[in-house]
Amino acid sequence: MPHYKFDQIAFNITDKKMPEPGDEKMYIGLEHLDSGSLKITRWGSEVELTGQKLVMRKGDVLFGRRNTYLRRAAIAPHDGIFSAHGMIFRPKTQVIDPEYFPFFISSNYFMDAAIRISVGSLSPTVNWKTLKELEFDLPSLEEQRRNAALLKSINETKEAYQELLIQTDNLVKSQFIEMFGDCIRNDKEWNVRLLQDVLAEGCRVTYGIVKTEDDIPGGVPVFRPVDISQGHVPTRSELKRTSKEISDQYKRTILNGDELLITIRGSVGETFQISKEFEGCNVARNIVPLRANTEILLQGFLKAVIDSVAFQEKIASITKGVALKGININEFKVCPIILPPIEMQQQWVEFAQQSDKSKFELKEAIKSCDALMKAILFTNLEEKEG
Fold first, then answer.
1. Burial of 123 (0-12, 13-18, 19+ CB in 10 A)
2. What angle do CA 253, 257, 263 make, to 5 degrees?
């Protein structure tokens, strides 16, 4: 099987320009790239763009070189400008088929290699100088062309499932607004308390472990934002571990196994409801664990409030920073939480649980598509792709 360095497979497009009036409408940033999806469904910037941006052409492959572990790669849907925190690739057609190329870039085979060479602790980043030297095996052009049509067909099915997933999420959001209105303006005049006043006894709005140090075998598992980013559902074995001595210094954030986790730095405002599987774990500084006082607030409803459009906009308004965005915890703990009657909260939680079942089935179908594409891609490279 032919063997190539990456710079023999792809061009790294480095053309740049300063944004001009109107460019913001066609701008694509890393925030517009979704993990595991080659399709870009949103773009544009509501704030003034500063600094030079990469110039992209429709059909280019956009790669998120910053925070590479998020595995972001997508096909540019139009000409425009792209974040300088990414890379733009074009295929060298003498060795790789243009239709096959995006699937190669999004594959575990390529992404795992890129993650291994990422450097930096806060935002691991891939450098072209290192990436271009990586070596990959490729099927013959004939085999690539034969597989490309099949991969495109499977990917279209996957995108249809992803669209249904988005529609389900939108239905849940619209149903929440219909039942409870804007939870920040409180246009339906529910009882309201501050976040710090609706939590269970012994639970405080507080940071987790400041410095977890190296991964320690047999230590205490610790949640980090990367573990719950973009809807990822982790297992206990995936979590990095710190020493019991360090964890015990942060006893207030040792988990009971029924908390709602929310990220307050980096990818701000993402939530994850944990189960008893994670009892005894802890959290890093960038995550706050919340446990509701269930006499007045159901845990599932607390998640719905924080996930709502209005509350996320509130979070965005108190988020500060450029390179590493974050929420001031003193501002976060005084955010208002609406308290409809428990019966209405329960009705909502039951509806959300039914929606979650539908979403689970869709996600399983998406996984099946991913598995099928993986089986087609590099069938002779299973060991390499892992």
1. middle
2. 55
Confidence of residue 386 (pLDDT cuts 50, 70, 90): very low
pTM reported for the whole predicted model: 0.73
| Whether residue 93 is found in the same domain as residue 64 | yes
Task: Give residue-wise pLDDT tens across range 228-275.
Answer: 876 778 889 889 999 999 999 999 999 999 999 999 987 789 999 999
* Res 383: pLDDT: 41
The answer to the question of residue 208 being in a domain is yes
Domain encompassing residue 330: 191-339
In a domain, 362, yes or no: yes
The pLDDT tens digits for 286-322 are 999 999 999 999 999 999 999 999 999 999 999 887 6
Q: How far apart are CA 156 and CA 146, in angstroms?
A: 17
Do residue 197 and residue 330 come from a single domain?
yes
Residue 186 inside a domain? The answer is no
- Mean pLDDT within 214-226: 89
